[in-house]
Amino acid sequence: MTGARIDMGSGILTERFVVEPSAEGVADERFEQARAGRLERLGARAVTRFRSYASPLEHLAIWELDDVRAALSAASALARWEELPTAHPPAAPPPEAAEPGIRLVTMEIPEERWSEFDSWYAEDHIPTLIARPEYLGIRRFKAVGGSTSLALWYLADGGLHTRPGFVPAAPTERGRRVQTFRTGSAHSSWAEIRAGLPAPGAAG
Questions:
Q1: Cα(157)–Cα(192) distance, integer angstroms
Q2: Distance between CA 202 and CA 167 in Å, rounded?
Q3: Please, are residues 190 and 104 in contact by the beta-carbon 8 Å criterion?
Q4: Which of 187, 98, 170 shows the shortest CA–CA distance to 132?
Q5: Which of 61, 77, 85 is nearest to 12 (CA)?
Q6: Residue 21 phi, psi (nearest 5)
Q7: How far is 21 from 23, CA to CA, in rounded Å?
Q8: Mean pLDDT within 10-38
Q9: Domain of life here (predicted)?
Q10: How far apart are CA 139 and CA 26, in angstroms?
Q11: What is the pLDDT of residue 3?
């Protein structure tokens, strides 16, 4: 399978902010009111929003750009990520998915070990996880001007990793080697904020 075509320079800006649960509706309204203006100021073509499962409650905005390196000064406070090719771009969630979302994973990788890390991720780690039906696909990024890796795993259930009984994939031999030099690994689970859907955990 060949990788999905990625335009040179395309990428995302990520923005995370804490939201008081009692004021979440107000935060949503303010974001939507400012959406069009911010899209124009950031030079973005679209934005997708997510809600955290962990406490404190956070919202995540992912702004899509055609040229993330040329992002204007209005984006200076946002993290900038350049997109990398992947053979498994995300598929749409099934219609019955109640809480589609993402698993966000960042890792600090020494620049001199990036090639080794990249090969492991593409040839070993992605095939291991994408074989599981819960995973809909992945988008990969590298920090602009840095060597931090960002992976967005798209899931039919954004809270998959928080569910009782979830069993993570066992590391392979190559994965264990990567663990010896990666640092700052962070994982978080997010449900997509979509009109007409209840907040995660609201049902029942």
A1: 10
A2: 24
A3: yes
A4: 170
A5: 61
A6: -55, -35
A7: 5
A8: 94
A9: Bacteria
A10: 30
A11: 39
Is residue 191 within 8 A of residue 159, CB to CB? The reply is yes
pLDDT of residue 9: 64
pLDDT tens per residue across span 35-83: 999 999 888 999 999 999 999 999 999 999 999 988 765 667 799 999 9
* Owner of token pair 């992976």: 151
**Can you give the residue ranges of every domain in the chain?**
11-192
Q: Which candidate, 41, 54, 53, 51, places its Cα nearest to that of 13?
A: 41
Q: Is the peptide bond before 171 cis (omega within 30 degrees of 0)?
A: no
Domain 11-192, second-level architecture: 2-Layer Sandwich (3.30)
Structure-block tokens of residue 139:
């988008």
Q: What angle do CA 72, 84, 111 make, to 5 degrees?
A: 90
- SS in 3 state form for 33-82? HHHHHHHHHHCEEEEEEEEECCCCCEEEEEEEECCHHHCCHHHCCCEEEE
CA distances from residue 30 to 23, 33, 36, 57, 190 in whole angstroms, order as listed: 11, 5, 12, 17, 20
